[in-house]
Amino acid sequence: MNQEKIIAKLIAEKIITISPDKSFTYASGMHSPIYTDLRLTISYPDLRSWIIKDLAALIKEKFPEVTVIGGVATAGIPHAALVANELNLPMIYVRPKPKDHGKGRQIEGRFSENDKIVLIDDLITTGGSVLQAVQATEKEGGNVIGVSSIFTYHLSDADKNFETAGVPFAPLLSYPELLKAQKNSGAITPEQYETLKTWHEDPWNWE
């Protein structure tokens, strides 16, 4: 597994930025000491390769019966395409809503009711968008056996949402793992580590 190399590259290229002393504001209004833009990973061939190999291996380990890889539009599509290629499996992708022209499709690509689909997104915060994609796929007769992602904040809201939906979730990297790696490398102080850990415990009331 390339976990340490992936984390180091994500930080070095500022694809993930940790700022314990000055927070970022998300669209939801949440204040956070971390900003993540995993769309940038596709611009780095070495990083992209490490992620795809580890993500493919993780999916085969957690969901060995998978027959179709799905991407959640738009950020999950390139990663799903590369994982599907790595595993030599068919691919589909799921839009947030059906097209308003043509055949009005929400899902592109072919699958049958006998297929076992794993959906991929780049980042999981609460899991809302990917679980909507699960619902859309199952509405069209698909059988989604799980969800995977490059990174998750591993918030309790997400854990509850996946549990309520009855959908298994297997992320490659998580916020607690990232913090531990940063602490062990000396990139953040023990005091900063505690500050960053506090956000994870109660993100909506952190500042």
TrEMBL record:
UniProt-listed InterPro entries: OPRT, Or_phspho_trans_dom, PRTase-like, PRTase_dom
UniProt xrefs under CDD domains: PRTases_typeI (cd06223)
Alphabetical UniProt keywords: Glycosyltransferase, Magnesium, Pyrimidine biosynthesis, Transferase
UniProt domain Phosphoribosyltransferase: residue ranges: 52-151
Positions that bind orotate: 125
EC number: 2.4.2.10
Class of enzymatic activity (EC top level): transferase
Keyword Magnesium: yes
Keyword Glycosyltransferase attributed: yes
GO biological process: 'de novo' UMP biosynthetic process; pyrimidine nucleobase biosynthetic process
GO MF annotations, alphabetized: magnesium ion binding; orotate phosphoribosyltransferase activity
Cofactor(s) it depends on: Mg(2+)
Record-stated family: Belongs to the purine/pyrimidine phosphoribosyltransferase family. PyrE subfamily.
Task of the protein: Catalyzes the transfer of a ribosyl phosphate group from 5-phosphoribose 1-diphosphate to orotate, leading to the formation of orotidine monophosphate (OMP).
Protein name: Orotate phosphoribosyltransferase
